[in-house]
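Sorry to interrupt, but I need a hand with the structure work. Could you write out one complete protein record for me, on any chain you like? Could you add the entry underneath, on a fresh line?
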Amino acid sequence: MNGTKKSSLFSTYGHPSLAFDHGKGSYLFTQDGTRYLDFAAGVAVNSLGHAHPKLVEALTEQASKLWHVSNLFAIPGQEKLAQRLCEVSFAQRVFFNNSGAEAMETSIKTARRYHAHNGVPERNRLITFSGALHGRTLATIAAGGKQQHLDGFAPNMEGFDQIVAGDLDLVRDTISPATAGIIVEPVQGEGGVNVLSPSFLQGLRTLCDEHNILLIFDEVQTGMGRTGKLFAYQWAGIEPDIMALAKGIGGGFPLAACLATSEASSGMIHGSHGSTFGGNPLAMAVGNAVLDVMLEDGFVEDVADMGLYALQKLAALKDGNDDLIEDIRGKGLLLGIQFKEPPAQIIKCLADEHVLSVPAAQNVLRLLPPLNTSRSQIDEAIEALEHALSKYRKRRSS
């Protein structure tokens, strides 16, 4: 025995050693007070940073009154948040969930149920795109199609036709009499911060209209201001039929939602779907507080401005480090640095400089700061990146 204590947790996360005691704004602090600039934000979850006073107030006030009653009873906060989300989006109906995967499951079920409700239950297949991540349930890993996520969980769930994004002719050729709809991430975050073009998204809308199928936007990561508009579909000037939201909508509290038009959700009748915890009073209090902040004048415009500033700074970083950096990409404050080799050690070097980041596919390092981050904090992150790359070169050559 070497005295090392064994963890009682599953090994799915590799038991990371870095732990934090508290956070404030864009910073996290270890128990000994060491400060880290958090440009991971819980993988785009902490949209307003840590311990935002409006969110703390809303949660504390609700926690002192009522935590949970289940959806057997009316929850006024649900009606309020649903109405507000509909007012600022394309939707007329909302179903509340706890996680992005659940919101995507609801979206998938809503699309299939729509066609069954209209007398064509055989229309049950969904077109998806390689590079996307839609969740880690059995249905959503099948939709995502990544072999690493599918391994060991056979049989794979049927009903998804995966193709390469960007080719409208290929999408057109893939549509069949069994197609119920198309699922798309407007920016593929986990897939490498791949920004899909407005023309491609517009083409998807046209194809869905032509074939009477549903367009589903997975905005789990891109929604709630992350790209510089409240929802990423707004950049393309189109509207989906169904949309999944999560991550930033709760500002750190588990909350997600499936939004849909009245027509698309027409099959979701009494008893067709449910959730024990979805839309609980605590989540609704926080969700309404998050929306209060995001709907303040200039909030999403500031995100867009900060995103452009960050992209300019990252482009300058690439110019000075083009031996390591292949590409800079992103939208708003969903930013990616594509390296010419796997960036695991660069991410570690950056953490040594007390800046946190997130890996993605295609050798990409993601920067996902809180949406209320400042220019000075972006400058701080860029300076730390310079030091991290210098440190990485020294380690690689030694």
Summary: Residues 22-52+298-397 form a domain with the Aspartate Aminotransferase, domain 1 fold (CATH 3.90.1150.10).
